[in-house]
Amino acid sequence: MRIDKNFLNVILLSFGFMLVFTAFQTMGNIEKTVLVSINEETPDFTGEAYTSLAIIYAVFATCNWLAPSYISLTGPRFAIFTGACCYVLFIAIFLWPQKILLYAASCVLGTGAALIWTGHGQYLTENSDTDTMSRNSGIFWAIFQMSMFVGNLFVYFMFADSISAQKRSLVFGVLTGLAVLGACALAALRRTSRALVLGEAEGVSSADKELRIPDPAKGRPLLAAWNAFLDAFSLFFTPRMLLLSSTFVYTGLVLTFYSGVYSSCIGFTKALGDSRKSLIGLSGILIGVGEVTGGALFGIFASKVSRVCGAWSVIITGFCVHLFAFITIFLNLPNDSPVKDTDNLGFITSSTALALIGSLALGFGDACFNTQIYSLLGSIFVQNSAPAFALFKFCQSVAAAVSFAYSNVLGLYIQLLVLTISIVAGTATFCYVEYAVRREKMNSQSDSDLTAN
């Protein structure tokens, strides 16, 4: 039985990301409450979690413009490994909590995030074709989001009764170790074994379906890097990319909410009981359950869904699930829960079960959006996959940086209102672009059939 080497590349990429982000996503989930506990023990420490996360995503956004140039020189594999090392550094500094180190490491991580995610987009595209792009996107997302399980389950038991200095050190040490293992796995990524074969894509005639993504520049590397930057800039102002940018922005806003804000809301709501701090980990686990379920579901059935009714149906599913989550969170949790311990109640008596259902819904809906974005970008921007994924992450990270910045000052209800407005815009523009692409493909196939006859 012949083994598809490109599929093995996708699996290795997925597990490497899973290990690295087991460390980072767990840290993002607990950073606010952990830094508050450090401040209570050491008043001289004034590092702020939301500020750290805002720095990460602001630098991430800026460096996304430069990442395609870097990848044009090194290729996606080295960019992915470099980015993974930046994540290791960020997790490790929590073993020696210092404000200046926290913010400096946040800058380093922002740079690494641009490299690892842009490199991931190109590498995933290199190892996929029209028949496997949706499947590989779904499988990657399902395995990657398993990172929400292990770290958050560990935190759930470690912080069951308190967040002591000894427990924090153990958690940080374990998370650093996992990030190192992930970086080692990503260092083992192999070259793509064959040319990328795609069907109708943007700028591709029906007679020219075999495309190979360019190898790293050998002759004139600086010129290649400059051209990659210009390609990214030009691509950003194309009609389709401008329309999709509203979808990208929404994924950044909801990323901030489920990865940093919502779990803090649960941990700060006293009405959820004395075990509310441990619920932070349980919330993260259920977000992961939703992410993995959505990724696996749309990975297994991606080709059938796309053939029958298109990716828009998955996006509409995510839209409905997220609206359900926003409504239940609005009713269940108090307005001041994102920033401090509160005795206030929501519009109903705060319910632990309803809060955790909200976590599950946030994860599942996020998988709906992200799997379809990866699939669409990998299909229609195959010749510009690095710039396309860089622009996706640029818009997403700008939105995340802004969102983390206002999370310090805006109440829960205003944040939910912003999310509701942005999901409506993002869903509408994605469905329009996806429909236009699908219609062009059908028309092109009809023309090819007529020519053949």
UniProtKB/TrEMBL annotation:
Signal peptide: none annotated. It holds the Pfam family UNC-93. Gene3D superfamilies: MFS general substrate transporter like domains. It is found in: Membrane. The chain crosses the membrane at residues 7-27, 47-66, 78-95, 101-118, 139-159, 171-189, 241-259, 279-302, 309-333, 345-365, 412-433. InterPro entries: Ion_channel_UNC-93, MFS_trans_sf, UNC-93-like_regulator. Keywords: Glycoprotein, Membrane, Transmembrane, Transmembrane helix. The keyword Transmembrane helix applies. It is a multi-pass membrane protein. One of its GO terms (cellular component) is membrane. Belongs to the unc-93 family. This is UNC93-like protein MFSD11.
